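Encode chain A's predicted structure.
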Amino acid sequence: MIYAVLPTGSFHGWGVCGKYIVKELSRLDDVRLVTEGLEFQNIQDEFDYRLLKSVVIPEEEAQAIRSGSVSSIPWPLLQNIVDKTLRPAVPGLRGSRTVGYTFFEENILAPDDIENARRAYDLVVTGSTWCEEVLRRHGLTNVSTVIQGVDPTIFNASHAEKEYMQEKFVLFSGGKFELRKGQDLVLKAFKVLHDRYPDVMLINSWYNHWASSMQTMCASPHIRFTPESGDYHSLMRRTLVDNGITPERVITLPPYPNLVMTRIYRNSDIGVFPNRCEGGTNLVMMEYMACGKPVVGSYNTGHKDVLTTSNSLMLTQMRSLTVSANGHRIAVWEEPNLEEIVANLDWAYHHREEIRAIGNKAAQDMTSLTWARTARLFLAALKPQSVPVIGLRQG
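Encoded structure for chain A:
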């Protein structure tokens, strides 16, 4: 048996990750899930919802665990780590073997953060080799990497051909709208192509549930962004206008569950992911690539576990970017070069067959990065006595 304390959902990275880990682990072992907010509207799939409901522990047991009256269980335990302090989602809860799972982007850690990890877990599993390297530099040794997966039954090369807008050259950009994700660079690069070529369009999936992270875009040196009251679509339309972009050449999507995004992906020509930092491997980018679509992506942080010179148009010209909050340095990220983004997109515009081949290679590479593989590696981390740990560090 395995206990898993994980978020679940279909609208954000942690939720998708938790859903699939539990789903695939349950094919390998008996799983008991501790989660909050498990409602159909957050899952948007009847079969996944039924499976998750079937493994959720009874509410009485969940309350005992969350209240701290139960602090130890006699089975392996997987806990998501809430932030860079490396605290577990349920503090004080230990299993026969306790594994923490983390993604973080604030890579300047305090000694207390590392001590939290030493006390709380037998092993810390990170979502990227970049996160693992950060932890090792700070002195944590009980750490390894297991990267996210892709569901090949949904995201695959059968979605490579466009159904609509064949006469347009369509860019896709995903991820919540914030400075770290680099959508300001996308908008600035799109503006250049927008002015050069009348057939270039942009589809964005940028909905952000967290106003505080959206407000970080105010610090962008590339665009004008003024968050004001009002609905999301009005805010994004105003941002386009403020930056000289014709709104009719942009499709701004509402929040969609990842299960239905393949139709969006297939009707675009290239993805643009100039992210300044990714603690994971960027699940949206992986799913996009799995559909046989080429990407222009920053070769930094978690992206390095996925991007190669043959499966993407890599952005390699980076400069160091120090991030501060309340007067304190919290992170050092990597800033992509705007001219390199524009040059890659312009090249792609004129080389449709070449980028088709890059997309084919991307789809081929993603076929080996499945959630089933991710679950097998977690099983090895949780039950090393029954599953060889050799090869656990899979970056």
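The longest helix spans residues 352-366.
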